[in-house]
Amino acid sequence: MRRREEKVPVAVDASILFVTLDSCRYDTSLATQTPHIKALGPVCRAMAPGHFTYASRAAMFMGFTPGVAIATALFLNPKSAKFSKMVGEDFFGQREELILLRGCNIVDWLRRADYPTLGMAAMGWMNPVVETGRPLTKDFDGFFFYGNCHCLEEQLQ
What we know:
The chain is of the alpha/beta class. Helix 5 (134-137) links the parallel strand 3 and strand 4 (142-145). The chain has a domain at 26-115. Mean pLDDT is 78; it is low at 1-8. It has six helices and four strands.
């Protein structure tokens, strides 16, 4: 575990689970047997904030989540209400954000707020040994890189 530099007040008194799944198509998601994930809420057909893994992860770590452009429901359209916002960012949205983030990204904020931060990936974009992978992985307390896109069973263990 890393030494905590600065305590960051948490705006919500709750557990936080932030999960990103790469290439999880809407139709595939509906057809799979994922009772625990589906119990969290409805599956929405949303557009990622980037066109490929690296861009999407970088955007999501800054609080830009996938969204439904025509949605009016709170937090489904990140243009009207975001679940989080980096402090100092110019985007204000039309409603209050749920969480104000301090730090360089959501992983850093969670770590500073004493949440354990664990990450895992198989895509080369997130290889922490490679310089280009470090910006996305350096803030986790523990990060596990598998280096094989076909290793789901290994990641689930």
